[in-house]
Structures are given as structure tokens and as C-alpha cells.
Write a structure and sequence with these properties.
37% of the residues lie in helices and 16% in strands. The protein is built from nine helices and eight strands. It has helices spanning 3-15, 79-82, 111-125, 139-149, 172-188, 194-205, 217-222, 239-248, 263-279, and strands at 36-41, 44-51, 56-60, 88-92, 131-136, 154-160, 227-230, 252-254.
Length: 283
């Protein structure tokens, strides 16, 4: 058993008795009152939102290809509320997410790279060079692609409940894209052909049908960016993928698992995220 696994088991036994900071429980207040903004570049229009002040934290909610601002209110950790007193929190609708307002071409040739370009483009628009990244669900794939694309800009990353390949259910993400996002997107954009959608989902989830889809294991072995991984175990959030990320990356650590319940333990994990990011804040 490697040190990461031993640490998860050892810490998990102790963490259930830890007390939580009371301020964590205020996480549902006020996000709906924050105004939205937009920026456009190269035919892509991105809706984004900011709250708080301090070192920048770019955060992407879950929901697969429907990752959008509205999903924070039902996220396990609502980053935009929980950390607004600690960081300049920035979030966005991902390109073409149903229910969001970010639009652009369907990037068939390099879909993971296109997401990274949108995210880096937003940081450029805001005049931000270095930033933290918090990626929930599909945001784990986003995080690692950003670290590959612009390692000098991501000061540290939190990968919460990262999406990952399941050998026993290899089509889970592709099928989710077909039955969820694609059906909704095509209803609003009938001009986009089924063949384009099929190729897009294939290039997202089937070109590299292993691990996190967006990058290779070889890259993660060499990635020097500090990471904190919060494991999960659902059909889309493969526990083994989270453990593999934490085991392979030289500067990665993992939280206990499970961590969402009871509330006291979840609050402790939120504090762990806060402490991790503050410890890696550039001088």
C-alpha cells in the first residue's frame, strides 16, 4: 500500500472526530445577487461572475458538459460562497453548457484544449497571470489540462470529485454526453449536425479512454503543480482515478474518503482546502 493510500486511511480514522469552523455553514448566502459579466474572443462569448477579493481563484462547477454558474447552489462545496472571504473567486459558464450563456463553435478537433483556452482567455481578460484553480467533477479534467497547457500560471489546484474512466463501465461519460448535454444542445442548435456532436464526444472521452481523459498518466507523473484531491465514488467520479492522481503527481495530496458526511467532517475538509490554497499563495 503506497503512502497516499496509507495517509487517506489513517487520516480518515481521525478526521471524523474533528470540530469544524462555524463560518463554513454560511455557504448558501448571497451568490444570486452577484452580477454577471461577459467577454468575447475569437467567436466565443463567455459569461462569468466574480465575488470576494484576494488572490484569484478560478472555480468550475460540476455537471459535465453542462458545467455552469447556476450549478454552484447545489454543489457539495459552493466555492463562490464558502471562499469569498478568502480569495477573489471567479467562475464561468463553460462553452455551450445548457442552462448557461457561454457560446461558441463546437471544438471538435481539440475539445479539452478549447476549454483551457476559454479559461485562460478569461484570466487574460481580467488581467490575471497566476491563479488557483478549483475544479469540481469535470473540473478535474479541466484542472490537469490547464496545468499541462500553462503550468506557470496555475499556482495550485483542487480536484474535487474528479471525473474518471471506469474500465467496468467505459461508456459512462460518453453516454452521459449523448443522453444529457447533446440532446439538449441539439434541440437549441439544430444546425449542428449529429456527426459533429458524435465526433466531439468521441474526442473528449474515447481518444484517450483511460484515467482523466484530458491528459496522460505520463504528464501527471511530471506535473509539479501542487494539488489537493477530494475523492468520490460514483459512476462518473471514479474513486480509483482520484487515488491514481494523488499517487502519481509529485506534489499531490488527498483528503479522507468519504468526506461529504457528517457535516462536521465536510466542514473540516473545506478548512483543509482553504489551508492548502493559502499555503501555496505566492508571496
Amino acid at each position: 500500500m503506497d503512502p497516499i493510500r496509507r495517509n487517506i486511511l489513517r487520516t480518515g480514522a481521525a478526521a471524523t472526530v474533528m470540530a469544524a469552523a462555524p463560518r463554513v455553514f454560511a455557504q448558501q448566502a448571497g451568490q444570486d445577487e452577484t452580477p454577471f459579466s461577459f467577454f468575447e474572443r475569437d467567436g466565443v462569448r463567455i459569461r462569468y461572475q466574480e465575488v470576494g477579493s484576494g488572490f484569484p481563484l478560478l472555480a468550475t462547477p460540476g455537471g459535465g458538459l453542462n458545467s455552469g454558474i447556476g450549478r454552484w447552489q447545489r454543489a457539495v462545496i459552493n466555492v463562490m460562497d464558502v471562499f469569498k472571504d478568502d480569495f477573489r473567486c471567479i467562475t464561468m459558464d463553460q462553452r455551450n453548457a445548457t442552462g448557461g450563456e457561454s457560446t461558441g463553435p463546437v471544438p471538435v478537433d481539440d475539445p479539452w484544449g478549447a476549454f483551457a483556452d476559454d479559461q485562460l482567455g478569461l484570466m487574460d481578460h481580467l488581467g490575471i497571470d497566476k491563479f488557483f484553480f478549483f475544479g469540481n467533477c469535470i473540473g478535474g479534467c479541466f484542472a490537469l489540462k490547464l496545468m499541462e497547457r500553462a503550468p506557470e500560471r496555475v499556482a495550485a489546484g483542487v480536484l474535487s470529485q474528479p471525473v474518471g474512466h471506469r474500465p467496468e463501465n467505459p461508456g459512462v461519460m460518453y453516454n452521459s454526453g449523448v443522453n444529457g448535454w447533446a440532446a439538449e444542445f441539439r434541440a437549441e442548435h439544430p444546425e449542428v449536425s449529429p456527426e459533429t456532436i458524435e465526433q466531439y464526444l468521441h474526442n473528449l472521452y474515447e481518444v484517450q479512454p483511460d484515467f482523466v481523459y484530458s491528459v496522460s498518466r505520463d504528464f501527471v507523473r511530471t506535473c509539479q503543480t501542487p494539488m489537493l484531491v477530494l475523492p468520490d465514488d460514483t459512476p462518473a467520479h471514479a474513486y480509483q482515478t482520484a487515488i491514481d492522481i494523488a499517487s502519481l503527481a509529485p506534489n499531490a495530496e488527498a483528503s479522507v474518503y468519504p468526506w461529504r458526511e457528517p457535516p462536521e467532517l465536510k466542514a473540516q475538509i473545506i478548512n483543509q482546502v482553504r489551508d492548502f490554497l493559502k499555503a501555496h499563495e505566492p508571496a
